[in-house]
Write a structure and sequence with these properties.
The structure holds 2 protein chains of 2 kinds. Chain A contains 15 helices and 11 strands. By secondary structure, chain A is of the alpha/beta class. Chain A has a domain of 255 residues: Amidase signature (AS) domain (Amidase signature (AS) enzymes, Alpha-Beta Complex), CATH 3.90.1300. In chain A, strands 1-3-2-4-6-5-10-11-9-7-8 form an 11-stranded mixed sheet, sandwiched between helices. The longest helix of chain A is centred in the C-terminal third of the chain and has 21 residues. Chain B is of the alpha+beta class. Chain B has 16 helices and 16 strands. In chain B, the strands form 4 sheets. In chain B, strands 1, 2, 6, 7, 10, 11, 12, 13 and 14 form a 9-stranded mixed sheet that branches. Chain B is elongated, with a radius of gyration of 29 Å. The two termini of chain B are 39 Å apart. Classes of the chains: A alpha/beta, B alpha+beta. At the A-B interface, helix 9 of A face loops of B.
Chain lengths: 490, 502
């Protein structure tokens, strides 16, 4: 029998539908894979019994012919999503053993379509990080290693657990979330596909907030098609989220193999940043060539305010975070460190509950919103944001989608960048613009580095034009024929 | 109408004036909170009206309650204010256990309602009152915090989140209020408006309407310079008196605070800008926090909420549905009932009073009704510290009494006696008059008989009245006394004049 855990989501759903295997069998295989891969530290909560229960119920639905779109498909859930009755901490110490009495809209959508939950996936604390090193539960280890080298590499972040578990066949696909690149960068680091939809496509209700105006849910999956299948279910209009868009979710799956003939693909000159490695540049040129060969027209475009994107992002995101995370005060839930008085209790709770990177961002955020600094930092960053949005509007006057590298480098080793926060932040240089402008962006694996690590390309679409991301992503996937998987060393 | 007097306080260096601006927090009359579906019912067990949003659970998001927005618009229209088609919610960040989110959602930079104006009617004891125009600076929507309870346990503070997230309207006046009485009258007027609009129940005891007063003092002439230039440097440093929910305390607090500031300045000191609390037991204000301790609230637009963009058609629909407001009612009372502006103002200062009056006056002499309501009834209620709703005399009963006066069944004087009996629970006016035989004697024969007897018995007075007709009153008194007050005073007068030849 084939290894059920190696199936794509699409194949697995076909197999379930045609009764080649049951959800209980499929789920059992993933439960075993997870139990055998604890060294990767991808899951922070495993829910094998719950998974089997859900699988049984799914099989019963299939038997009675009432299956949903994801019925019986075992998925991993980023710990950012509140899951009823299952501990949810966003991998922060400050939430202690917090167990929600409610379900996030995105995960509810999955369960409503019959999906099976395998457990909660590791992530950077409150999604603040690009290497998974800020997780309260320790970092995830990337299943990929450099050729001939056993050094542990980061899976990227913040959705490191999602990316690693999909790459290591610990789930069919996973939910993730993206505030500055947290879906696309880990996808690129692990040879998986990740898409962040247009801001407002997916509900933020029940997602632990990092930066409200940037946070957006999305999937990490093995193929472009799988990501489309999952994203279609994750997105919905939700009256409980005022920023949720009241629009229909399209059928994206049928866009994946449409091809790019006649499409205009923009290549932004500003993304050719100083010190861009030859390897990444070569990958980018390869991507351009593939799309040309597939019938697309390549146009040079300019996104002139790109260089201000990263600084603006690292003002807006911490500012919102400093306010969003004020609720973790030890008063109502989560961890609490008693002090001699109220202030000491606040200080003790937050000093011990939050990790260093979160504390750094809370301080930056508090600073940029302070009276006397607000105009110089926050307000200015918002103006930059408007300019960046306008850059894209102008650029999309000339093209249908934009092709860029996903990240400036392949996966790096632990500790390699954690000493210098700015160097770590530079990892987001190609991805933050889509968040600042609210645009959809997909990362697709396109090749291997000289050291044998996956490299990804990014496609940015117009607002609400995820279809373009899927078409271009599908074309790149076809052209690249990326089938490499990490050697199983764990 | 009376001229607006200038309120002055005598200091050692001469006269001082007071300048005030008020911030009223009015709880929006709504069954649900501003951003969650939780109930706003008063008196529920602690922490029972709390949704996941109100408790700021992870991942929870605010969703604006459309009805609360409508109430704010309605209030703005009632204040004759600009309704801003674009407004926005900001976060005001600070830590406190009764503030679960760690921030209050408010409107800082772009309030839903802009400038407006209301006419404030000030009562002056023993004199006719006056009216002044008070400009409104803005009205914005915000969330209330929960309640910290410090006195249940010596070592712990308990928190009740029932109020957390309840919608408040903060209504800010311009510094147009110039005396303690005016401040109280302003709150009273605003309260009457929101009650009439149905946008706040105005219950001050429950804290559903409370006032912060910014008080400063200045020398005569400075305020006029401020009004000319708009430059606050002409005014003194202000102190904010927080959270007052009684007209009496508002006035006491302002009096105390103004004198405190004058003393400081005259003693060569400087008033510190600070927030102060009024202690009604000691009758003084004390410092709550100084400007230096003031929080840096780090206001910024709430990214969880979209800006409020109001359609003009909706605003117009609300405008069309506005009920009669106190000022419109007053104008109608002046016109339809022929009342003085002052009486009309008193009667329309409160929807219940107006309703009561209209019931008394229906089909009766309105001016007489107004006199009886404002003087006899309100006088009695004031003396006994009763609310109108606690009045022992109903509107229809008072109307019955007035009918008896109008048709000359009883005199005004007898009516006061009947009124006293009605208060003590003897029943309807007609029954009391019947029972005690208080009907006015209009039978001229009977009156003539009494008059003849008195003239015969008092030849000296008769001689005197020829020279001094004003001593006629003495005869009237005697006749009334002899008739037990029941003789019709007009008939008595007429008969006396005829018989005495004056």
């Amino acid at each position: 029998m084939t290894d059920l855990t190696a199936l794509t989501l699409a194949k697995a759903l076909d197999g379930l539908k045609s009764k080649q295997f049951s959800s209980v069998e499929l789920t059992g295989a993933f439960n075993a894979a997870i139990a055998g891969a604890r060294v990767l530290n991808a899951f922070v909560v495993e829910t094998p019994e719950k998974a089997l229960e859900m699988a049984k119920a799914s099989d019963a639905r299939r038997a009675s012919g009432k299956a949903g779109r994801l019925d019986g498909a075992p998925l991993g859930i980023k710990d950012l999503y509140c899951t009823r009755g299952v501990r949810t901490t966003a991998c922060s110490g400050i939430l202690g053993d917090f167990t929600p009495t409610y379900e996030s809209t995105v995960t509810q959508n999955l369960w409503d379509e019959g999906a099976v939950m395998l457990g909660k996936l590791n992530m950077d604390e409150f999604a603040m990080g690009s290497s998974n090193e800020t997780s309260h539960f320790g970092n995830v280890i990337n299943p990929w290693r450099r050729k001939g080298d056993n050094q542990g590499l980061t899976p990227g972040g913040s959705s490191g657990g999602s990316a690693a578990s999909v790459a290591a066949n610990l789930c069919l696909a996973a939910t993730a979330s993206d505030t500055g690149g947290s879906i696309r960068q880990p996808a690129a680091f692990t040879g998986t596909v990740g898409i962040k939809p247009t801001y407002g496509r997916a509900s933020r209700y029940g997602m632990v907030a990092f930066a409200s105006s940037l946070d957006q849910a999305g999937p990490i999956a093995r193929t472009v098609e799988d990501s489309a299948i999952l994203l279609e279910v994750m997105c919905s209009h939700d009256p409980k989220d005022s920023t949720s868009l009241n629009i229909r979710t399209p059928d994206w799956r049928q866009d994946v193999r449409k091809g790019v003939r006649g499409m205009k693909i923009g290549i932004p000159k500003e993304y050719r940043i100083d010190g861009l490695s030859d390897e990444i540049d070569a990958l980018w040129q390869q991507g351009i060539k593939w799309l040309k060969e597939a019938g697309a027209t390549i146009v040079d475009i300019s996104l002139p305010h790109t260089k201000y994107a990263l600084p603006a992002y690292y003002i807006v995101a911490p500012a919102e975070a400093s306010s969003n995370l004020a609720r973790y005060d030890g008063m109502r839930y989560g961890a609490r460190v008693e002090g001699g008085n109220l202030t000491q209790t606040y200080e003790g709770t937050r000093a011990s509950g939050f990790g260093k990177e979160v504390q750094r961002r809370l301080m930056i955020g508090t600073y940029v919103l302070s009276s006397g600094y607000y105009d110089a930092y926050y307000l200015r960053a918002q103006k930059v944001r408007t300019r960046i949005f306008q850059d894209f509007v102008d650029a999309f006057g000339q093209c249908d989608a934009i092709l860029t590298p996903a990240c400036p480098s392949p996966a790096f080793a632990f500790g390699e960048k954690s000493g210098d926060p700015v160097e770590m932040y530079l990892n987001d240089v190609f991805t933050v613009t889509a968040n600042l402008a609210g645009l959809p962006g997909i990362a697709v694996p396109a090749g291997l580095s000289a050291s044998g690590l996956p490299l990804g390309l990014q496609v940015i679409g117009k607002a609400l034009d995820e279809a373009a991301c899927f078409r271009v992503g599908g074309a790149l996937e076809d052209a690249a024929g990326f089938v490499a998987k990490p050697d199983r060393w764990w | 109408m009376t001229e607006r007097p200038t309120f002055r306080i005598k200091g050692d260096t001469g006269d001082w004036e007071v300048v005030m601006g008020l911030e009223i927090h009015a709880q929006v009359a709504s069954n649900a909170k501003l951003f969650s579906g939780a109930s706003t019912a008063f008196g529920s067990d602690p922490n029972c009206n709390v949704s996941l949003v109100d408790a700021a659970m992870p991942g929870m998001l605010p969703v604006i309650n459309r009805f609360c927005v409508e109430q704010a618009i309605r209030t703005g229209l009632g204040l004759k204010a600009q309704i801003n088609s674009y407004s926005r919610f900001d976060r005001k960040n600070y830590f406190y256990p009764d503030l679960p989110q760690g921030y209050q959602i408010s409107q800082f930079a772009h309030p839903i309602v802009g400038e407006g104006e209301i006419d404030v009617d000030v009562e002056v004891p023993g004199k006719e009152g006056y009216t002044f125009a008070c400009r409104i600076e803005r009205l914005h929507l915000e969330q209330d915090a929960g309640k910290s309870i410090h006195d249940m346990d010596p070592h712990a503070t308990y928190v009740d989140l029932n109020r957390s997230g309840v919608a408040l309207m903060e209504i800010v006046s311009k510094p147009d209020v110039r005396s303690p009485a005016e401040a109280a009258a302003y709150v009273k007027k605003l309260r009457a408006i929101v009650i009439a609009l149905g946008t706040c129940d105005g219950d001050m005891e429950k804290g559903n309407l409370r006032a912060d007063v910014n008080v400063s003092v200045c020398k005569p002439g400075q305020y006029e310079k401020f009004r000319e230039t708009g430059d606050f440097k002409h005014l003194g440093t202000r102190c904010e008196l927080k959270n007052m929910n009684s007209y009496r305390f508002i006035q006491q607090a302002i009096e105390y605070e103004a004198r405190r500031q004058i003393e400081i300045i005259e003693g060569g000191g400087k008033v510190d800008q600070e927030t102060r609390l009024f202690d009604p037991v000691k009758g003084e204000t004390r410092s709550m926090r100084s400007k230096e301790d003031a929080h840096d609230y780090r206001y910024f637009p709430d990214p969880d909420l979209l800006p409020l963009e109001l359609e003009q058609a909706w605003i117009e629909d609300i405008r069309k549905s506005l009920p009669e407001l106190p000022d419109q009612k007053r104008a109608r009372f002046e016109k339809d009932y022929g009342l003085s502006r002052y009486d009309a103002g008193v009667l329309t200062s409160d929807a219940d009073k107006a309703l009561f009056f209209e019931e008394v006056a229906r089909g009766r002499d309105a001016k007489l009704a107004a006199n009886w309501v404002t003087q006899e009834l309100f006088g009695y209620l004031n003396k006994e510290a009763l609310e109108l709703s606690q009045s022992p005399v109903t509107a229809s009963a008072l109307g019955g009494l007035i009918a008896l006066i109008s048709d000359n069944t009883i005199s005004g004087k007898i009516a006061k006696d009947v009124f006293a009996r009605m208060i003590s629970g003897e029943g309807e006016a007609a029954a009391i008059v019947e029972k005690h035989g208080l009907k006015q004697v209009t039978d001229t024969g009977a009156i003539e008989k009494v008059v003849d007897e008195i003239i015969a018995a008092n030849p000296d007075q008769v001689a005197k009245v020829k020279d001094k007709p004003q001593t006629l009153g003495w005869f009237v008194g005697q006749v009334m006394k002899a008739s037990g007050g029941k003789a019709n005073p007009q008939a008595v007068n007429d008969i006396l004049k005829a018989k005495l030849g004056i």
